[in-house]
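Example 3.2
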Amino acid sequence: MDDNMKDDMVIDLDLNQEPLVDPPPPPPFGYGPLLNELETTHDRIEDRIRKLEAVTARARQRQRWRQARNNQELSYMTVIELDVGAGNQNQDDNNVRDVD
Protein backbone atom coordinates (compact mmCIF):
# COMPACT_ATOMS: atom_id res chain seq x y z
CA MET A 1 0.00 0.00 0.00
CA ASP A 2 2.87 2.38 0.75
CA ASP A 3 4.35 1.68 -2.70
CA ASN A 4 1.15 2.87 -4.39
CA MET A 5 1.27 6.14 -2.46
CA LYS A 6 4.91 6.69 -3.40
CA ASP A 7 4.11 6.09 -7.08
CA ASP A 8 1.30 8.64 -6.94
CA MET A 9 3.63 11.25 -5.40
CA VAL A 10 6.19 11.18 -8.22
CA ILE A 11 6.26 14.53 -10.02
CA ASP A 12 7.87 15.28 -13.37
CA LEU A 13 10.04 18.37 -13.14
CA ASP A 14 11.19 20.30 -16.16
CA LEU A 15 14.22 22.23 -14.92
CA ASN A 16 14.28 24.37 -18.07
CA GLN A 17 10.84 25.76 -17.35
CA GLU A 18 10.46 28.95 -15.34
CA PRO A 19 8.79 28.35 -11.99
CA LEU A 20 5.19 29.41 -11.71
CA VAL A 21 4.88 32.45 -9.53
CA ASP A 22 1.63 33.03 -7.75
CA PRO A 23 0.53 36.65 -7.68
CA PRO A 24 1.15 38.20 -4.30
CA PRO A 25 -1.86 38.40 -2.05
CA PRO A 26 -3.46 41.81 -1.75
CA PRO A 27 -1.91 43.87 1.02
CA PRO A 28 -3.81 44.18 4.26
CA PHE A 29 -5.85 47.32 4.72
CA GLY A 30 -3.65 50.37 5.29
CA TYR A 31 -0.41 48.88 3.97
CA GLY A 32 -0.98 49.79 0.31
CA PRO A 33 0.57 53.28 0.47
CA LEU A 34 3.47 51.99 2.56
CA LEU A 35 4.19 49.22 0.06
CA ASN A 36 4.02 51.70 -2.84
CA GLU A 37 6.48 53.95 -1.05
CA LEU A 38 8.82 51.02 -0.43
CA GLU A 39 8.65 50.00 -4.10
CA THR A 40 9.38 53.57 -5.20
CA THR A 41 12.31 53.78 -2.79
CA HIS A 42 13.59 50.41 -3.98
CA ASP A 43 13.43 51.59 -7.61
CA ARG A 44 15.35 54.76 -6.70
CA ILE A 45 18.01 52.73 -4.89
CA GLU A 46 18.43 50.40 -7.88
CA ASP A 47 18.70 53.41 -10.21
CA ARG A 48 21.33 54.97 -7.96
CA ILE A 49 23.30 51.72 -7.89
CA ARG A 50 23.26 51.58 -11.70
CA LYS A 51 24.52 55.18 -11.88
CA LEU A 52 27.29 54.46 -9.37
CA GLU A 53 28.33 51.37 -11.31
CA ALA A 54 28.52 53.46 -14.49
CA VAL A 55 30.63 56.12 -12.76
CA THR A 56 32.92 53.44 -11.32
CA ALA A 57 33.34 51.82 -14.73
CA ARG A 58 34.27 55.17 -16.30
CA ALA A 59 36.73 55.92 -13.49
CA ARG A 60 38.39 52.53 -13.91
CA GLN A 61 38.58 53.06 -17.68
CA ARG A 62 40.25 56.46 -17.18
CA GLN A 63 42.68 54.95 -14.68
CA ARG A 64 43.66 52.19 -17.12
CA TRP A 65 44.06 54.80 -19.88
CA ARG A 66 46.29 56.97 -17.67
CA GLN A 67 48.40 53.98 -16.63
CA ALA A 68 48.85 52.94 -20.25
CA ARG A 69 49.76 56.51 -21.24
CA ASN A 70 52.21 56.86 -18.33
CA ASN A 71 53.84 53.53 -19.20
CA GLN A 72 54.28 54.70 -22.79
CA GLU A 73 55.80 58.00 -21.60
CA LEU A 74 58.12 56.19 -19.20
CA SER A 75 59.32 53.79 -21.86
CA TYR A 76 59.81 56.73 -24.27
CA MET A 77 61.74 58.67 -21.62
CA THR A 78 63.85 55.62 -20.78
CA VAL A 79 64.83 55.25 -24.42
CA ILE A 80 65.79 58.93 -24.59
CA GLU A 81 67.79 58.68 -21.35
CA LEU A 82 69.60 55.61 -22.62
CA ASP A 83 70.41 57.37 -25.89
CA VAL A 84 71.60 60.50 -24.10
CA GLY A 85 73.55 58.43 -21.57
CA ALA A 86 75.24 56.50 -24.36
CA GLY A 87 76.15 59.78 -26.06
CA ASN A 88 77.71 61.16 -22.84
CA GLN A 89 79.66 57.97 -22.27
CA ASN A 90 81.13 58.16 -25.78
CA GLN A 91 82.16 61.77 -25.18
CA ASP A 92 83.87 60.84 -21.90
CA ASP A 93 85.79 58.06 -23.65
CA ASN A 94 87.06 60.53 -26.24
CA ASN A 95 88.11 63.15 -23.67
CA VAL A 96 90.49 61.14 -21.51
CA ARG A 97 91.95 63.22 -18.70
CA ASP A 98 94.93 62.54 -16.49
CA VAL A 99 94.31 63.25 -12.85
CA ASP A 100 97.35 64.53 -10.85
